[in-house]
Specification:
22% strand; alpha+beta; 9-stranded mixed sheet; single chain; 461 residues
């Protein structure tokens, strides 16, 4: 019997105790954004450190200016790669509580009509259930082989759901301790219920808020309409110029650093059976609204965007008020890809908007963060090694996929430690993370742990 098979068999035999351990972790009300739950966050961190120590890790709870970070180390064979695993033990608030079908911190296993099972509770899918798949894989390997096939460092954050402000300085302070060959991050999902995935593209993010100032006060539209500048009209005109008739963004230099999708990656995406009709149909739409000639998969994974997230000004209460407002406001977000420079785009965006403002009006800008995209190097053989290991466990070819959102820690690990990340998670689109009745598939939990046994063994080999 191979070491891998022994560990897989151990996971199967240990399924009930593994679920009990997950339930222990889930019962901690580790809501990081609410100071009232600081003690619960500390208890969750202490529980994780103790659990890791019980497996032979050198583990400690490291303080930060906010909630603590759990840091653990385990040696591997001479010459084996060093893996840095990242997860987070904090969770989102549970509001609105009346929409939960059961106590969010009393985890439940529920069966569906088709016989499949789900684990319901806050943090099941984001991220306690996910991180425990990796810990259970390590536990099984230790129990059956006495060691791990790689050198492993584990970093578990307590503030991911509340901004993660203390993680970057922690990475900087502990850089020498955290340097590794590659990172593994579990905060992602599968392509579908049967197809595992490694996320290799994360879009960057740029946020802008602007206010157009016109008259010195709100004006009666009967007295001043047609004569005085209306900032809502000025703002609407400026925003409408952000896209041309083909859906492309018009900001100067916006597409600098935007790569085309490699042919081999596009071929793999084509094999996933994606359809615009299904994707948009789930939200009551049917027509792709991005750049012409790009389907929704390309638009959300590999193309940059400019989106108006909010516009307001004037009278918006009940009834009717004939007023020309003195100010109009908007919030704009940009999703970035490739090597787009968020600061250059901010400068060009502000220049374009400013040029559309009449001389007797003015515009004021306020930035809301600026981070570049993260793109993983598929020519690194560790990515293909991990993909093959996932494929072996699930019996179907694992996919390299993109993601429309951002995971800040990926960029921080690249910037501060020079680390690329294997983004391997087992979440599903309907896991309701951040929402009432959050769940995690029992299949994801059990096969996720088996997957990480295979991934660690393959990387170690």
């Amino acid at each position: 019997m191979t070491d891998i098979q022994a560990a897989l068999d151990h996971l199967d035999a240990d399924a009930d105790p593994a679920l009990a351990r997950l339930f222990e972790l889930l019962r901690f009300k580790s809501i990081s954004t609410d100071p009232a739950y600081a003690e619960e966050c500390a208890k969750a961190a202490a529980w994780l450190a103790e659990d890791l120590a019980s497996m032979g890790f050198t583990a400690r709870v490291a303080p930060t200016k906010g909630h603590p970070i759990v840091l653990a180390h385990h040696d591997g064979p001479q010459g084996a790669p060093h893996i840095l695993f990242y997860g987070h033990y904090d969770v989102q608030p549970v509001d609105p509580i009346d929409l939960w079908h059961s106590d969010p911190f009393d985890p439940q296993v529920k069966s569906r009509a088709d016989g499949s099972q789900i684990i319901v509770g806050r943090g099941t899918g984001d991220d306690k259930g996910q991180l425990m798949t990796f810990l259970e894989a390590c536990r099984a390997l230790k129990a059956t082989t006495g060691g791990l096939p790689c050198k492993v460092t584990i970093l578990l954050e307590g503030e991911e759901e509340s901004g993660g402000a203390n993680l970057p300085p922690f990475l900087e302070e502990h850089a020498d301790e955290l340097r590794a060959d590659i990172a593994v991050i579990c905060d992602t999902g599968m392509w579908d219920r049967e197809t595992p995935a490694i996320t290799t593209m994360l879009r960057g993010m740029l946020g802008e808020e602007l206010t157009v100032h016109a008259a010195s006060r709100d004006l009666h539209s009967g007295f001043y309409g047609g004569a005085a500048a209306n900032p809502l009209r000025v703002l609407s005109h400026a925003l409408s110029g952000l896209h041309d008739e083909t859906g492309r963004v018009t900001i100067a230099g916006f597409y600098d650093g935007v790569p085309e999708i490699p042919a081999d990656v596009q071929k793999q995406w084509n094999a996933l059976g994606f359809s615009d009709e299904d994707f948009l149909g789930e939200i009551g739409l049917s027509i792709p609204a991005g750049e012409q000639g790009r389907n929704s998969m390309q638009a959300t994974w590999a193309r940059p965007t400019a989106e108006v997230n909010g516009v307001w000004g004037g009278y918006t209460g009940a009834g009717f008020k004939t007023v020309i407002p003195a100010e109009a406001h908007a919030k704009i977000s940009f999703r970035l890809v490739g090597t787009q420079d968020p600061l250059k785009i901010r400068e060009a965006f502000r220049a374009q908007i400013s040029a559309a403002i009449p001389a007797d009006c003015r515009v004021e800008f306020h930035g809301h963060g600026a981070s570049p995209a993260s793109v993983m190097p598929l020519n690194d053989p560790k990515f293909e090694t991990a993909r093959q290991a996932l494929s072996e466990e699930w019996g179907i070819e694992a996919a390299f996929v993109g993601a429309g959102g951002s995971i800040p820690v990926v960029g921080e690990l690249q910037r501060q430690l020079g680390l690329h990340s294997l983004l391997i998670g087992f979440g599903q689109n309907d896991d309701a993370i951040h929402s009432p009745n959050e769940k995690y598939e029992m299949t994801s939990f059990r096969k996720g742990a088996r997957s990480f046994v295979r991934v660690l063994a393959a990387l170690g080999a």
